[in-house]
Automatic annotation (TrEMBL):
GO terms for molecular function: ATP binding; ATP hydrolysis activity. This is ABC transporter ATP-binding protein. Residues 5-234 form the ABC transporter domain. It comes from Ferirhizobium litorale. InterPro entries: AAA+_ATPase (IPR003593), ABC_transporter-like_ATP-bd (IPR003439), ABC_transporter-like_CS (IPR017871), ABC_transporter_ATP-binding (IPR050763), P-loop_NTPase (IPR027417). Coiled coil: none annotated. It holds the Pfam family ABC_tran.
Length: 307
């Protein structure tokens, strides 16, 4: 099936001459959860804003369900829900009306039962009659999510949805994301919290300096770029690593009692060779552990390389 969002050679140069996007190509599949990772100023919000029709591209093309986001913006906009980073609501309106109006604005028939369901899901039901200005920052953020869900979008963009919010909101959010995924909604989120991407995303895209460095299935990425480390606590201290072990890449690490061995996450069989060589060299260990690099390690390595 054709991707639900297709981005081709997308560039954006702002009026001051700053190149925020330098030729991005990306296909987003129907029903997937894609996490876009990148440091501050990488171009994530610019990319999302172009797909959502808020910012005009300088070059390239974006198709949403086959429709051009510039020429057919009315159609594409109706398919997309956006939860922006910044709060954009009328402070003197009630929560109930804010969410209800959002549905109406997008041309959907009123459905109070559905609105109630969303408000309950996001723990906003008790606040439905409060004015927006009476809510805490975290509650306002919940309303932004409710506003985007109110018109049942097929594609949902979440721009740093959990930045500066508490654990409860994060948990509520993930429950909502799970429900939406089950309903076939495509979800794209930007985040600085790598564990969030690790937890929830099917694919991960890394963006830096206006370029998409990679997009990869999360598990494949962790396998391909992930590193593992075998740590051997020795029974007796040693001064130098015997040649037979040094040849395999083992090193003393911070102590005469600890040997470490770094290997690719997909080369677990290498451990057997290390252990049999240990026996051959007559070096005994009293404990053994392994450590796997996280998505965060991979991200830092990728972005660092490019910097
Ligand atoms: N209207 C604008 N005019 C000029 N430059 C802009 C404008 N909007 C954004 N930029 C610049 O474009 C770059 C990308 O910004 P963008 O907001 O897309 O980054 P981001 O990855 O979302 O960052 P963050 O994680 O901080 O939200 C930044 O250097 C920013 O200063």
């Amino acid at each position: 099936m054709a991707p639900i969002v297709s981005i081709r050679d997308l560039t954006k140069t702002y009026a001051n001459g700053f190149k925020a996007l330098k030729g991005v190509n990306l296909d987003i599949e129907r029903g997937e959860i894609l996490a876009l990772l990148g440091p501050n100023g990488a171009g994530k919000t610019t990319l999302i804003s172009i797909v959502c029709g808020i910012v005009n591209p300088s070059g390239g093309e974006v198709l949403v369900d086959g429709h051009d986001v510039v020429k057919d913006f009315r159609v594409t906009r109706s398919l997309i829900g956006l939860v922006p980073q910044e709060l954009t609501t009328d402070q003197f309106e009630t929560v109930w009306n804010t969410v209800r109006f959002s549905r109406g604005l997008h041309g959907c028939k009123p459905d109070p039962v559905y609105i109630e369901k969303i408000l309950r899901e996001l723990s906003l039901w008790d606040k439905r009659d409060n004015m927006m200005r009476q809510l805490s920052g975290g509650m306002k953020r919940r309303v932004l999510i409710a506003k985007a869900l109110a018109y049942e979008p097929r594609i949902l963009f979440l721009d740093e949805p959990t930045a500066g919010v508490d654990v409860n909101l994060r948990k509520d959010m993930w429950k909502v994301v799970e429900r939406l995924r089950a309903a076939g909604v495509t979800i794209i989120l930007t985040t600085h919290y790598i564990e969030e991407a690790e937890e929830i995303a099917d694919r991960v895209g890394v963006i830096n300096g206006g370029e998409l460095l990679l997009v990869e299935d999360k598990n494949t990425l962790m396998k391909k770029l992930g590193r593992k480390q075998l740590i051997l606590e020795l029974a007796e201290p040693i001064d130098t690593v015997p040649t037979g072990l040094a040849d395999l890449g083992l090193e003393l690490n911070g102590s005469r009692n600890r040997l470490v061995y770094d290997y690719d996450a997909d080369k677990e069989h290498a451990i057997a060779a290390v252990l049999s060589r240990m026996v051959k060299e007559g070096i005994h260990f009293r404990d053994l552990s392994t450590r796997q690099s996280s998505l965060e390690d991979i991200f830092v390595a990728l972005v660092g390389e490019k910097a």
